[in-house]
Amino acid sequence: MKKYRMKKTIGYIALNIVFILLCLAGLIPILYAISLAFSKSGSALSSGLFLLPKNPTLENFRKILFEEPFFVWLKNSVILSVGTMVIAMTVSVEAAYAFSRFRFRGRRSALKMLLLLNAFPQILSMFAIFRLYKIMHLLNLHLGLILIYAGSMCIFGIWNMKGYFDTIPIEIEEASKIDGAGNLKMLVKIILPLARPAIIVTSVMVIIFVWNEYLFATTFMLQENSYSLAGGLYQLQADDYGRNWSIFSAAAILVSVPVLIIFFCIQKYMVSGLTAGGVKG
């Protein structure tokens, strides 16, 4: 028995060591980008791999913030992210609750169709959407891109929220109806507070997707004052003869900071279950 426990312990230690080494290997590109952002060298290929800059400087960050329209890109990304999140979550929460609680004809077929649409590569529809938006004069407009993002993220939101609504005991709703609460009041006062962790996490996932989305942002936003952060980063490297990887790395770090802050703020909601204790035995 002791020999078995010893082998099991050694196996766990070896597995943890492997995981730690994999995590360290994954951190190397990030550490290199941070080092490059604080270095004076403008080329990522002219010197060897270094994780600590030889002569650290904030000049690259100063150039991004004050010599490039970074705050314009930031404003556009915030508008796109928040606008998409509001539309997608408004539709997703209501639709997910309906799919979870009501049994109507075509329910399963509709869910399967949504899943199929989500698996459909967006790039295949890009040309058709571009032609349609050109006719409708929605190119270079935040509204046009928000509609595209919201349409794709609604599917993710519906499936994600439906799974959470399925875990909420039906006894809670039955008790509220006995107390005289209508469907709307029950949804607003009881169900939505219980589903707050799922709503917050899904909303942040939508924001992160829009924040990092590159393909549609660079295709449908053709004017410099309409670029998002992804489009702005692309423009920094658009010149094949004047690429400065230090400035690009500094911009990439600035773009990542808001997402990291949001992620750390919602960590507690990612593992919490609010229905525990909701129904007394």
TrEMBL record:
UniProt record, GO biological process: maltodextrin transmembrane transport
Membrane topology reported for the UniProt record: Multi-pass membrane protein
Coarse class of the protein's main subcellular location: membrane
MF GO annotations: ABC-type maltose transporter activity
Ranges that cross the membrane: 12-38, 78-99, 111-133, 139-159, 190-211, 245-266
Localisation per UniProt entry: Cell membrane
InterPro entries in the record: BP-dep_ABC_trans_perm, MetI-like, MetI-like_sf
GO cellular component term of the entry, any: plasma membrane
Keywords annotated in UniProt: Cell membrane, Membrane, Sugar transport, Transmembrane, Transmembrane helix, Transport
Family classification: Belongs to the binding-protein-dependent transport system permease family. MalFG subfamily.
Official protein name in the record: ABC transporter permease
Organism: Anaerocolumna cellulosilytica
Phylogenetic lineage: Bacteria, Bacillati, Bacillota, Clostridia, Lachnospirales
